[in-house]
Write a structure and sequence with these properties.
Serine Threonine Protein Phosphatase 5, Tetratricopeptide repeat; 0% strand; 77% helix; Arc Repressor Mutant, subunit A; mainly alpha; 537 residues
């Protein structure tokens, strides 16, 4: 091979330092095709390829760097590149080659007695095996040992990777507060620019994923904004941006910026056409469509979630409830709830489970789900969990005819939703509060809550307010049943409705029973809340 072009190498290294990945890749790739690059430059080439989303070229660059290190007699960095190759191949599910490269790295390290930082990197495959087997205590202990090795050798990347792995594991075993504090500490290193580019991206995305797993909205919002800024500063960046966009979409949906949320999810899907990130993107789009009342498009989007390997629940069950198919909603959410094993998975399913069980008239199941949700929230102390638990408690108490008991819980939920800036949930809570106030005879208070909720729904463009009476979904109700429902929501008794409509009280009783069945509710308060939330009055 020819002698490398030193000017071109300098240009490639400068572009690399500036995070200009396209220029770095072009310059180093040109030299690599013409002459021999040293091992460090081959690693730079591999990193630039990775950041541009060129995974095969990244693998090729690391393989060449590994052999270059071996030829130079530098066994320790050769071992490290082998281990990195194995980890990256495992991420892309090429388990055979992954195991082979990790075994090669281990063999190289076993050939020397030198105490070295590379031994810390070799612990990661063991950590992943413990985690996959559900052996979280062993995984946490191993991550702690790995971080100590990194500190001893002053390797910030190893410390950051190990601490974030330990934090994620703590969150998964229900030690959310402890784990989140550890993730916050790791993010100080990330935002301070102390870690290498690839490790920075890995930790950013993994920490944000951990925040979303436990539904820690404030942290997720802050770290997603930081990741977005980091990505925006590297115009050619492809790696990590799909996940970034998917998470930004979820934050925007919670905040009520539904147009932006849908657009961000579309960008995420364009970056990652298949796999779990694509499934996340489709799910966010399905949720936006469901909340807007576009049921057909939402149904299609949930189907795409399944096709991408994701789970469309609990959103799909809530869509079936919106469509008036309580039986299908109950079947879907019961299946999802039964399969949710970890506290993280259960806390995402239980709020919808409680709502749907109440709609199905299964008060016992709703109460059981509510109690479990409250227990998880008490343990995690995550605000979103506390709000969901308070809402569920209030809903269950209203369903049993105890509005005086339910209203304090609903007010607590509303306060947290407002503090988190989650407007749709705040509007739903206000509607349920209005039903409770009606039950207590506080007509003025109920009307005030409905006006506030209606204004929120209108600002969001929620489906409950779309269209006029002629086009709105009647949820299977006849004209007479709609008329009875409208009177029922004002607090009128069945006898008063009968007098007003010149009907027998028995006929009104039958209409009310039919309304309960069609709306999937079991009380006047629940029927009132449903009517206002779905703009039936």
């Amino acid at each position: 091979m020819e002698t490398p072009n030193t000017e071109l190498i300098g240009r490639g290294r400068a572009a690399f330092a500036d995070r200009d990945w396209a220029a770095a890749y072009a310059a180093l790739r040109e030299i690599a095709d013409e002459a021999r690059l040293d091992a460090e430059d081959l690693e730079r080439l591999a990193t630039a390829a990775y950041m541009l989303g060129r995974v095969p070229e990244m693998v090729d660059g690391l393989e060449r760097a590994h052999h270059a290190y071996l030829e130079a007699g530098r066994e320790l960095p050769a071992a490290k590149t082998a281990i990195w190759l194995g980890i990256n191949l495992a991420i892309t599910r090429k388990m055979g080659p992954a195991a082979g490269w990790i075994a090669r790295g281990q063999r190289i390290l076993e050939s020397t007695d030198e105490d070295c930082v590379e031994r810390g990197y070799l612990l990661f495959p063991r950590f992943f095996r413990h985690e996959a087997a559900g052996e979280f205590d062993q995984a946490i202990e191993l991550a702690g040992r790995t971080a100590e090795i990194g500190r001893r050798f002053g390797d910030a990347d190893l410390v950051g990777l190990a601490m974030h792995a330990e934090g994620r594991a703590l969150v998964k075993v229900g030690r959310a507060e402890e784990g989140l504090v550890m993730l916050d500490e790791v993010m100080v290193s990330v935002t301070g620019g102390e870690l290498s580019p690839v490790v920075t991206g890995i930790v950013y995305c993994s920490v944000i994923e951990g925040c979303f797993e436990v539904q820690e909205v404030r942290r997720a919002r802050d770290w997603t904004a930081a990741l977005s800024a980091w990505c925006d500063g590297q115009p050619d960046l492809v790696a990590f941006t799909g996940q970034c966009l998917a998470h930004r979409s979820e934050i925007m949906r919670l905040e009520g910026s539904w147009d932006d949320a849908y657009a961000e999810a579309e960008k995420a899907h364009e970056r990652m056409a298949r796999g779990l990130i694509a499934a996340q993107a489709h799910y966010q789009q399905a949720e936006v469509l469901r909340l807007r009342g576009d049921q057909a498009a939402s149904d299609t989007a949930y189907t795409r979630v399944t096709e991408s390997g994701g789970d469309p629940q609990p959103g799909l069950a809530l869509l079936r409830l919106d469509q008036g198919d309580v039986e299908a909603a109950a079947a879907g959410i019961r299946r999802a709830e039964a399969e949710a094993a970890s506290a993280i998975d259960r806390v995402r399913m239980l709020p919808a489970y409680v709502d749907i069980m109440l709609a199905a008239g299964d008060q016992a199941a709703a109460d059981t789900g509510c109690a479990e949700l409250d227990g998880i929230a008490s343990q995690t102390r995550v605000d979103l969990h506390l709000a969901a638990a308070a809402y569920a408690t209030g809903a269950c108490q209203l369903a049993t005819g105890a509005p005086a008991d339910g209203l304090p819980s609903l007010r607590r939920a509303l306060r947290i939703w407002n503090e988190l800036d989650v407007p749709h949930e705040a509007a739903r809570t206000r509607m349920l509060m209005a039903a409770g106030l009606d039950g207590l005879g506080d007509t003025d208070g109920a009307q005030a809550e409905r006006r506030a909720a209606t204004a929120l729904f209108a600002r969001l463009g929620a489906g409950a307010l779309d269209g006029g009476p002629a086009t709105r979904d009647r949820h299977g109700l006849t004209d007479r049943e709609l008329e009875v429902l409208q009177m029922l929501t004002t607090g009128m008794t069945n006898r008063a409705i009968a007098v007003e409509l010149v009907l027998s009280e028995r006929t009104v009783d039958r209409h009310v029973s039919n309304i309960y069945v069609k709306l999937g509710v079991s009380s006047r308060a629940a029927a009132t809340a449903y009517a206002y939330e779905h703009q039936l009055v």
